[in-house]
Amino acid sequence: MLIKRATDIPSSEITSEYAYRNRRQFLKAAGATLGAAGLGSILPASAYASSKYDTDEMQTPLEHVSSYNNYYEFGTGKDEPVVNAKGFKLRPWTVAVSGMVKKPATYALDDLLKGLTVEDRIYRMRCVERWSMVIPWHGYPMAALLNKLEPLPSAKFVKMQTLYAPDRMLEQRRPILHWPYTEGLRMDEAMNELTFLAVGVYGKEGPAQNGAPLRLITPWKYGFKGVKAIVKIEFTDKMPLSAWNEEAPHEYGFYANVNPNVDHPRWSQANEARLTGGLFDQLRPIKTRMFNGYGAFVERMYAGMDLRANF
Predict the structure, then answer these.
(1) What Cα–Cα distance (Å) separates residue 53 from each residue in 138, 161, 234?
(2) Range of the domain at 34
(3) What are the pLDDT digits (tens) for 51-110?
(4) Is the pLDDT of residue 274 over 50?
(5) Considering the domain boundaries, does residue 3 fall inside one?
(6) Does residue 262 lie within any of the structural domains?
(7) Cα–Cα distance between 176 and 248 in angstroms, integer?
(8) What count of other Cβ atoms lies within 10 Å of the Cβ of residue 211?
(9) Residue 93 is part of a domain; what is its CATH number?
(10) Of 2, 7, 147, 222, which is the most buried if we count CB atoms within 10 A?
(11) Exposed/middle/buried for residue 216 (C-beta within 10 Å: 0-12, 13-18, 19+)
(12) Domains contained in the chain, number
């Protein structure tokens, strides 16, 4: 498997795979390179302490996190978004909030996030296509934003939508999916402590090919739930029709919970290939865990549900 190097990330910003294995090693490497004065410009204060949500598994190197992406607005090949998203402007950016909520408005992104505490969390991420990564995401707990916006009790779901701009996202000119890309969560899923709104990776904002300036992270679900470049958030009492569920309902359900016991119609979900930057990643399959290993945080939300029917 060939993984191309990100073309828009200076080599000076790419630390070795070993140095990225944990924050302590990363801080040591960054500190030695930049000195204490320069470190704050790369990492926020929250990165100095581990999060209780972090995995201690080997992290996927930045060069692969940012050059092997599913982002159909910028290309169907995983090596295309890093090229086609080059020059995509992340500011100015607005997010329209509507529906069953006390504070509907169109917000500048910086105003929407103002007052929220930035965090860095290292999450396992599982793609439906049998590959996975371990990514340090940079962003905000979604529950904090929802509490700020004050959904009404009648709101049962949160619907999110990607920017529709065929002049900037050229693949939207093709009928690959029903554009714009739409996703949704049940309200309790959106408020779950794991649910995250990422603005970047490895302690920095961006890059565009990773979904910046605002994308959804639900690490117990398959990656296609991670709607990118969010411009609309709607609170509703009806389950949203998500992009892949609309395109292929027999293959992609609304919930998209990682479940190794339910095969995709075209492949098994029992194993995954972890991308660590090694030459033999594909030769070392690992067993996929229920809810991607996050059951302690999320399984209570699905108690009594048939997860084969609600896939």
Answers:
(1) 13, 26, 27
(2) 11-302
(3) 889 998 999 999 999 999 999 999 999 999 999 999 999 999 999 999 999 999 999 999
(4) yes
(5) no
(6) yes
(7) 12
(8) 27
(9) 3.90.420.10
(10) 222
(11) buried
(12) 1
